[in-house]
Structures are given as structure tokens and as C-alpha cells.
Amino acid sequence: NMDCQNCVDNITRKISFETGVKDLYINLEKQVVAVKFRSDKTTKKHLKEVLIKMKYIVTETENSEYLPNNWKQTR
User: 46-58: buried (b, 16+ CB within 10 Å) or exposed (e) per residue?
Assistant: First the structure.
């Protein structure tokens, strides 16, 4: 349910500054948010909960189809 640049900006502001987040990729057209993080500092569950609290619907996937090539290689 990410449908505008304001959504992208909100997610960027919130998730980028979560402890352990190293990088963030957002594709508005495909409604994809990908996060690289340090597993010793945070968890997938925590990051998912942050997005849910922001009122976004979150579906976790291992599908890298919509990620840029440099993200596919370092997952």
C-alpha cells in the first residue's frame, strides 16, 4: 500500500535510522522495500513491525526480481 513519494520519504526517514540498518532500497512502482541490516543489531521481525506500525502491509519474500543487480549479488 505504498503509493506515493510521501510514502517513500516516510519509510526512508523511519527505517534508515533504525539501529543496524546499513542500506535501504525502495521501488515505488513495484511497491518494494528492501533493507540490508546487521543481524547483531536488529531483526527482520523488528523492521517488519516498524513498517506495520506505520500502517503498511508487509509481505516478506526471498524473491529478488525487483532488486537492482548490485543488491542481488550481496543478499
Answer: ebeebbeeeebee
Cβ of 8: how many Cβ atoms within 10 Å? Answer: 15
Q: What is the pTM of this model?
A: 0.84
CB 72 within 8 A of CB 26: no
Look at the block and give the residue holding cell 531483526: 43
Torsion angles phi and psi, residue 3, rounded to 5: -130, 10
Residue that the C-alpha cell 537492482 belongs to: 68
Residue 29 backbone phi and psi in degrees, to 5:
-60, -40
* 18-52 per-position pLDDT tens digit: 999 999 999 999 899 999 999 999 999 999 999 99
